[in-house]
Amino acid sequence: MDTLHEISAMVAADFDVYWRTAYPDAPPLGHLLRTAYPRRWLRVHSLPGAQRYPSTPADWRELLGRQCTVFADLVGDPADGVLVTGEYVFGAEPAGPVRAEGALRGLAWSALPPVALPADPQAPDEHGPNDWFRPACAPFRWTAAAGDVVLRDLALGRARAFFVSEARGCVLAPYDGGMDLILPDEAARDRCRDRYAAWLSTRTDGL
Question: Cβ–Cβ contacts within 10 Å for residue 99, how many?
Fold first, then answer.
C-alpha cells in the first residue's frame, strides 16, 4: 500500500471515531443530517430565486462566489478537513473499493462502515433489508482553487460529497441547488442565518 493510501486509511479510522462522537444521531449520509440536527442546520441557496442550476457565466460566478465565501467564513482558506462521499448498493452488503464520481475520482478514498438504509415512513417499500449506503472519506485541503472543480461537479449533480472540519466543528454539504450547513451549535446557526440572510429561502421550513 502506498503512503498516500496508508495516510488515507489512518484518516478513515480516526474520522470514524470522530464522527460517531461528534454526530452520534446520524450516519455520514448528508441528507440525514438536516433531520438529525435541525437546530444546527441552515440551507444557503446557490443562486437567486432558488434557481437550481447555473446556465450562464454570471450564474457560475454567483454560485462559486457564494459557496467559496461560506467556506472561507466557516473553515478558512486554506483549511484541512475530510471529504465524505459514498455510493448506494442495493440487494447485498457492499464490498470492494468505493467508486467516486467526477472530480472526486483522483482522491485517496478509504471506506467507512456501511450504513443500512433507514426505512422511509413516506415510502416504506423504497428500501429492502439488504440496501446500503457505503460512505468513504479522504483527506482534503480546501482552497478556492482546489475546490473549484469539485464545487462545479456537485453543482451539476455529477458527484455527491460534503466537507467536514473537525477543527471548526461544522459540516458543509454543497449540492445541486445550494449548500447545507451543520454548525457547531444553535447560536452559530443563528449568526450564519443573519450573515447569509440574502441567500436563504423565503420558505418557513428553510428549504
Answer: 13
Quick check: 142 pLDDT over 70? yes
Amino acid 203: pLDDT: 83
| SS3 of residue 173 by DSSP | strand
Encode pLDDT of 64-81 as tens digits: 999 999 999 999 999 999
Query: Pairing mode, if any, of strands 115-116 and 110-111?
Result: unpaired
Nearest alpha carbon to residue 198 among 39, 56, 70: 70
What ranges do the domains of the chain cover?
3-85+93-110+136-199
Separation CA 143–CA 204 (nearest Å):
33
pLDDT in tens, 106-131: 888 998 998 887 665 544 445 555 68
The whole model's pTM is what? Answer: 0.89
Q: What residue type is assigned to position 39 of the chain?
A: R
In a 3-state reduction of DSSP, which class is residue 67? helix
Which triple of cell numbers denotes residue 27?
450516519
Q: Please enumerate in sequence order all residues whose Cβ is within 8 A of that of 202, keeping only pairs 6 or more positions apart, or say none.
A: none
Say how many CA atoms lie within 13 Å of 15 toward its Cβ.
Answer: 26
- What φ, ψ does residue 24 adopt, rounded to 5°? -70, -15
